[in-house]
Amino acid sequence: MTASTTTATLPDRRSSNRATLVGFIAILLWATLAPLATLAAMVPPFQLVATSFLLAFLVGSCWTASRGDNPLRYFRQPVAAWALGVGGLFGFHFLYFMALQAAPPVEANLINYLWPLLIVLFSALLPGERLRAWHVGGAVAGLAGTALLIARGGGGGFSIDPAHLPGYAAALGSAVTWAGYSVLRRRLGQIGEAPTDAVSAFCLVTALLSLLCHLALERTVWPDSAAGWGAMLLLGLGPVGAAFFVWDYGVRHGDIRALGALSYLAPLLSTLLLVLFGLAANSGIIWVSCALIAGGSLLASKDLLRRK
After folding, report:
1. By the 8 A CB rule, do 300 and 135 touch?
2. Which long-range contacts (CB under 8 A, 24 or more apart) does 202-205 make?
3. Domain EamA spans what residues (predicted)?
4. Cα gap 300→304, rounded to integer Å
5. What is the pLDDT of residues 244-279, one digit of tens each?
6. pLDDT tens for residues 14-40?
7. Distance of CA 264 to CAs 66, 110, 234, 261, Å?
8. What HEC string does 132-157 produce?
């Protein structure tokens, strides 16, 4: 590599690294999802998703408007962009909640958490991306650590019951949906279509579809405490709000392979927060999982950490 080529590629590398760090903010926000959802547990799932995505729409629109832009103009997107945006955001949550209803939460969660590994693998199909051994190794280590965490939460074992196959299929569908959404949003970024500001529009339609599901399937229940209301508000501002915007920016402009593997930090950090706030019991398995997930994340982030 010549000196001129090195100089030309350094800005691109730095820009990609910054975007990856922005995407990592989403992973940190998703780590707060379980503690906040626990505090707002009295609110039915689709009602919670509807209110959270409505707040996400308001957050994204305010951000767009603060830059002197008109949020409404981002509603004009190609049909394919709408299908991907709404299908990814609403489809993932719909399938995930269906999986939790039709299969034991332990197995459903484990199957759903295949999505980081699938992002790493699917990214190899993108133009200009190259999947390396440390990306796969890091993702597999993260999956192993997550499996330990979820097995611990379900009493340490798994059961395969044919009656739960529809739930397993829904959980797998949610994993494939989110991985496909993330990778295809990267592809749209490569061709300059449906910018991150358009996510606000997708959030609004997702909120409306979630509201319809709530009205059809659930009874409306609002929080009965200040903590519950605060948790519901923070969900819409953070893990089910701003997280989708920084994640979108990260997967479009950063290292999607590293972000996929780093995503396994979310269930680990979430479990640690539950333990810290007394919402879950401590266990040695947590620290074994910590070593696997942290080590896998560092391995998958080799491109970001190594020095030129």
Report:
1. yes
2. 202/82, 202/85, 202/86, 202/88, 202/89, 203/53, 203/54, 203/56, 203/57, 203/60, 203/89, 203/244, 204/53, 204/54, 204/57, 205/82, 205/85, 205/86, 205/90
3. 20-150, 166-300
4. 9
5. 999 999 999 888 888 887 887 887 787 777 777 776
6. 888 899 999 999 999 988 887 888 788
7. 33, 11, 22, 6
8. CHHHHHHHHHHHHHHHHHHHHHCCCC
